Amino acid sequence: MAGFDGTRPIFLQLAEMLEEGIISGAFPEEGQIPSITEYSAALKINPATALKGINLLVDEGLVYKKRGVGMFVSEGAREKLLRKKRESFYSERVLPVAREAKALGLTQDELQALTARAYEEKE
């Protein structure tokens, strides 16, 4: 399936796509998201797979069901996701860089200078 990688379950990738949509504003808080049927047809995936991905967001309180109406983004979902992403960024990216910097003998000031240089660099 185009758009999905073969290394992780599709339902997780769908949940991540929805999270990105919430963060970007494509799915605003209190706005409706596409139905299970719409996702399964558009992405050519099993409806049970789509349901499993969306239910991950329901379980986290990011999306809620209105019976007979559809699925909606919860109030505060964007901020909750940003906090989650920032913590993940720290543990998966920043912490390993800081540990490697220490191993290389860089001081905190030197690491901050390198970070500032990288932050200012043009793409």
UniProtKB/TrEMBL annotation:
Question: Which keywords does this Swiss-Prot/TrEMBL entry list?
Answer: DNA-binding, Transcription, Transcription regulation
Q: Which SUPFAM superfamilies match?
A: Winged helix' DNA-binding domain (SSF46785)
- Organism superkingdom: Bacteria
Cited Gene3D superfamilies: Winged helix-like DNA-binding domain superfamily/Winged helix DNA-binding domain (1.10.10.10)
A molecular function annotated in GO for this UniProt entry is: DNA-binding transcription factor activity
Cross-referenced InterPro entries, in alphabetical order? Tscrpt_reg_HTH_GntR, WH-like_DNA-bd_sf, WH_DNA-bd_sf
Instruction: State a single Pfam family of this protein.
Output: GntR
- Domain HTH gntR-type per the UniProt entry, residue ranges: 8-76
Q: What is this protein called?
A: GntR family transcriptional regulator
| Organism listed in the record | Candidatus Scatomorpha merdipullorum
Write the lineage as a comma-separated list: Bacteria, Bacillati, Bacillota, Clostridia, Eubacteriales
